[in-house]
Amino acid sequence: MKNLKIEIKWALIFTGVTLLWMLLEKAVGLHDRYLDYHLYLTNLFAIPAIVMMVLALKDKKKNFYGGQMDYKQGFLSGVMVSVFIALLSPLAQWITSYVITPEYFPNVIKRSVELGYFKTLAEAEANFNYKNYAVQGAIAALVMGVVTTAIAMVFIRSKK
């Protein structure tokens, strides 16, 4: 576990920033008053997500590998950060869904039927719920983390 201390640290930081982002979305009304914009604006989280992954990889390079990290070492580190984020993701989703913004699912269910994305409330409820979001969030965290790492390591790796 000592070898993974940096990865765990950054997964915890990432989860904390994710929860802060959810608080920001709620505060500006993206979970109720401006719900129609949520679909688009929530994707802006990719910016801090990428920055955090790059910072995690640079931290590993500097403080574990002494400034010399090859592509494989960095890629494995980024995969581990992504795994830890994915493991923490259901907890972050639970906090978001039940503590930060419990009205989000009822709001998005109602609005998605009004706009015709779903024909019935039951169809919308089957899509917008904690279980689906927890599973989708964990998978997305893993996939996006690995993709981000693969690209970032082209630039972060030590050149020979």
Which terms would index this structure?
160 residues; mainly alpha; 77% helix; transmembrane
Explain what the structure shows:
- By secondary structure, the chain is mainly alpha-helical.
- The protein has one domain.
- The chain is built from seven helices and no strands.
- The model has no long low-confidence stretch (mean pLDDT 97).
Could you list the spans in which at least 5 consecutive residues all have pLDDT below 50? none
Overall strand count? 0
Per DSSP, the total helix count is 7
Q: Summarize the biggest pleated sheet.
A: none
Which structural class do you get from the secondary structure elements? Answer: mainly alpha
Taken in chain order, the helices and strands follow as: HHHHHHH
Instruction: Assess the beta-strand content as a share of residues.
Output: under 5%
- Mean pLDDT equals 97
Q: TL;DR?
A:
With 160 residues, the protein is an all-alpha fold. It is built from seven helices and no strands.
What is the strand and helix layout of this fold?
Blueprint: H1 5-27, H2 35-41, H3 46-63, H4 71-100, H5 104-114, H6 121-127, H7 130-156
Helix pairs in contact: 1-3, 1-4, 3-4, 3-7, 4-7, 5-6
